[in-house]
From TrEMBL:
It comes from the Eukaryota. The keyword Transferase does not apply. It is an enzyme of class 6 (ligase). Residues 3-63 form the ATP-grasp domain. Transmembrane segments: none annotated. This is Ligase.
Length: 99
């Protein structure tokens, strides 16, 4: 699964931290389920296994992943110093293909 995750992210030129989810069947075959392109609650497990501080590496490498790219737009109502209320709608942003 690790090799498949690296191959998938490399094939699309992804740079940064993320989580890839797979489903595993009783035969040991696995199937891609999702990719979350952000730090997740699981990231400390990766840090323990690899002895790499993921946040420190992103800062050290000056990785700031800007929202959007050509023909892609990121829409959100979140702004600097925005406070997410305790009963928030989990949709804090959405990615739009504007082709």
């Amino acid at each position: 699964m690790g090799d498949a995750a690296v191959a998938a992210t490399s094939s699309i030129g992804y740079i940064g931290v993320g989580t890839i989810g797979f489903l595993l069947d009783e035969r040991g075959d696995f199937y891609f389920m999702e990719m979350n392109t952000r730090i997740q609650v699981e990231h400390p497990v990766t840090e323990i296994i690899t002895s790499v501080d993921l946040i420190e590496e992103q800062i050290r490498n000056n990785i700031l992943l800007a929202s959007g790219s050509p023909f892609v737009r990121m829409d959100s109502h979140v702004y600097t110093d925005y406070v997410v209320p305790p009963s928030y709608d989990s949709l804090l942003g959405k990615v739009c293909n504007i082709l």
